[in-house]
Inverse folding.
């Protein structure tokens, strides 16, 4: 009875089921040393150059939401996956799967956003593909983007997090949970409107500032689906250190907090599209924080926690009333609670 | 958040914890019977603040957790009927029935939608005239009035494609049944939301008959700690009474309007609780006058034979006789990804909360 014979929505939630699917099916059959390092981008060596390579598909519903649309998201997401690997994003590919009958005007708006965001992020879209499928065979529009970037030798270990040590600090570049709540509210299924915009943004300039400032950046990951909580668990999982997070330091907007209260969500697990978690040495933490705060995408940045020599492999949250609890990887997408 | 942050104030929390420690001498067990309390207690890490002699237990307060396999099986059978849309509170869809769950049926193609209220389900009914919309009515005196109001509204607007499958329950029978079953507790942290509707009168029998402390509590850390303080005080002094620590929401007479609506649509029936069995007059059945809205009577479906899972001790956990960690299935076999028992499914369930938050 516990075996799933069909794919559930939950397999795509970024939580435990997604991890199981990847481990037990994809890794099993695609097994190679580059893939198994499980970094945000694959790190390749071609002709003595370090190349980062990544891909992502975008199926967001609705296509347009406060703060962005699927096109902008498709650029930001892939650019960010390269940037958090420590690479300089250079080129993107783009693939469209379009449902028959989709509005030409909407497509134009989306393509324009793609071009604008690519320009802003200083990447070129150099190849692409278009497929149109029968009505009902996909939901309006799906986009896939892949990207490659160049990686300097000194940044090679960032995506593995190998150099993380006790005492390192964890920084987030601003308010968490905005994207998830903006999309949820735009979806209108739950008859709920919150005045919140998606944080969807390309973080490569901000990350470049950080890398220019410090050579003590130990790890970075963009906290998208699954939220900050999931990334923290991924950092600590199977490692010989623990993570301690201070709930009072977590930047959460009042309206996002309020929406989370009503739905019974934990903002730690709500999706972001413009947030990066940075692990940096204690010595450089304040300077790096200052650098992030000087960037328009990092004004609300904060040091939220620390790598410690206790409860190895676990993330512990000091709650706002000084209680303590574990942050665990979510089993799946958060569901609105009954009461 | 205004009006919430005040109740999460660290200094007040510390002060209350200090006061509790000063007066608390006896080894005591306090039980909460509301999923919202379970969540709050774990989310804020309240047990880590309390002295070791105060044990907090989670009772049958999570509506999802006390829902029977049979109800899920019934809902699954309905989801297979042509043109039926099942509407449900979010956390119910992962609850395992005898052989499947609503989440799995959705993956196979059943039309199952998450709503925040039965009134949202009524909207779906209005917008999908050719479909039949079944709302899965679970919950105590908190959600039952809204379900009742939805039926009255459907009746008023002549909407004939909305149906309720009622598994609504009332809280007092469970609170007395637990004690009759031999559960050893010293006091109840009484459910704030339920009492907002029912009023505080109904706890008098618990206090008088069983000599237990009863304090109605809100859901923020300061509310809960204040209630614990008041409970400890009653127990230490051997003076048992019903006290209200949630006066900003709960009036002693409750919400009379909601009570009337509930009584108009529902009548008491014996009902089955997971872990507790059948409790007399603990369920809410739809009255004859509104039977055209009763999904149980309007659809003739074959419900599969109920199979209860072996080894699952949800029942004992709900009764507060055992903690989740004492269950053989806990963590290894039964976890939030593959929940076996209902206590692991809902984020309000004791096992789920333990799994997620306990250190």
């Amino acid at each position: 009875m516990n075996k799933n014979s069909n794919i559930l929505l939950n397999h795509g939630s970024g939580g435990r089921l997604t991890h199981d699917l990847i481990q037990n099916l994809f890794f099993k059959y695609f097994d190679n040393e580059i893939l198994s390092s499980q970094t945000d981008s694959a790190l390749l060596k071609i002709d003595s150059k370090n190349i980062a390579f990544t891909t992502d598909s975008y199926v967001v519903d609705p296509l347009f939401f406060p703060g962005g649309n699927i096109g902008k998201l498709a650029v930001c997401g892939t650019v960010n996956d390269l940037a958090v690997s420590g690479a300089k994003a250079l080129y993107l590919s783009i693939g469209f799967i379009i449902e028959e009958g989709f509005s030409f005007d909407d497509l134009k708006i989306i393509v324009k956003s793609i071009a604008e965001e690519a320009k802003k992020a200083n990447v070129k879209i150099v190849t692409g593909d278009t497929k149109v499928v029968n009505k009902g065979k996909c939901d309006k529009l799906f986009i896939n983007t892949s990207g490659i970037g160049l990686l300097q030798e000194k940044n090679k270990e960032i995506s593995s997090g190998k150099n993380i040590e006790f005492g390192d600090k964890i920084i987030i570049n601003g308010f968490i949970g905005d994207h998830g709540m903006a999309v949820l509210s735009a979806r209108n299924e739950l008859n709920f409107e919150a005045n919140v915009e998606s944080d969807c943004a390309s973080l490569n300039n901000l990350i470049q500032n950080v890398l220019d400032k410090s050579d003590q950046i130990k790890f970075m990951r963009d906290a998208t689906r699954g939220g900050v909580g999931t990334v923290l668990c991924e950092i600590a999982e199977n490692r010989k250190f623990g993570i301690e997070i201070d709930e009072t330091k977590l930047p959460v907007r009042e309206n996002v907090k309020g929406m989370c209260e009503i739905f019974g969500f934990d903002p730690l697990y709500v999706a972001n599209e413009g947030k990066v978690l940075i692990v940096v040495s204690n010595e450089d933490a304040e300077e790096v924080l200052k650098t992030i705060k000087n960037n328009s995408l990092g004004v609300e940045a904060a040091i939220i926690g620390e790598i410690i020599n206790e409860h190895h492999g676990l993330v512990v949250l000091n709650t706002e009333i000084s209680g303590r609890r574990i942050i665990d990887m979510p089993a799946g997408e958060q569901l609105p609670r009954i009461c | 958040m205004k009006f919430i942050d005040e109740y999460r104030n660290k200094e007040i929390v510390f002060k209350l914890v200090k006061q509790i420690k000063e007066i608390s001498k006896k080894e005591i067990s306090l039980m909460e019977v509301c999923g919202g309390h379970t969540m709050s207690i774990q989310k804020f890490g309240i047990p880590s603040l309390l002295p070791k002699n105060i044990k907090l237990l989670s009772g049958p307060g999570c509506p999802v957790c006390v829902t029977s396999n049979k109800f899920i099986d019934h809902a699954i059978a309905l989801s297979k009927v042509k043109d039926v849309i099942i509407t449900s509170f979010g956390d119910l869809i992962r609850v395992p029935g005898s052989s499947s769950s609503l989440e799995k049926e959705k993956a196979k193609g059943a039309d199952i939608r998450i709503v925040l209220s039965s009134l949202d389900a009524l909207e779906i009914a209005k917008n999908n005239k050719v479909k039949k919309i079944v709302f899965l009515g679970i919950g105590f005196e908190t959600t039952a009035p809204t379900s009742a109001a939805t039926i009255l509204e459907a009746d008023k607007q002549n909407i004939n494609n909305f149906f309720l499958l009622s598994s609504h329950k009332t809280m007092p029978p469970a609170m007395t049944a637990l004690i009759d079953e031999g559960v050893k507790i010293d006091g109840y942290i009484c459910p704030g939301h339920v009492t907002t509707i029912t009023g505080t009168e109904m706890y008098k029998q618990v206090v008088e008959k069983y000599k237990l402390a009863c304090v109605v509590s809100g859901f923020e850390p300061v509310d809960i700690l204040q209630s614990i303080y008041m409970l400890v005080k009653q127990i230490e002094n051997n003076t048992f009474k019903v006290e209200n620590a949630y006066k900003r929401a709960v009036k002693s007479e409750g919400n009379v309007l909601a009570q009337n609506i509930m009584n108009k649509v529902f009548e008491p029936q014996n009902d089955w609780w997971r872990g507790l069995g059948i409790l007399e007059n603990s369920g809410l059945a739809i009255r004859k006058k509104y039977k055209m809205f009763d999904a149980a009577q309007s659809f003739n479906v074959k419900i599969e034979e109920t199979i209860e899972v072996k080894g699952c001790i949800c029942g004992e956990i709900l009764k507060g006789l055992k903690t989740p960690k004492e269950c053989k299935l806990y963590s290894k076999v039964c976890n939030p990804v593959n929940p076996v028992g209902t206590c692991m499914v809902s984020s309000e369930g004791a096992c789920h909360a333990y799994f997620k938050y306990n250190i």
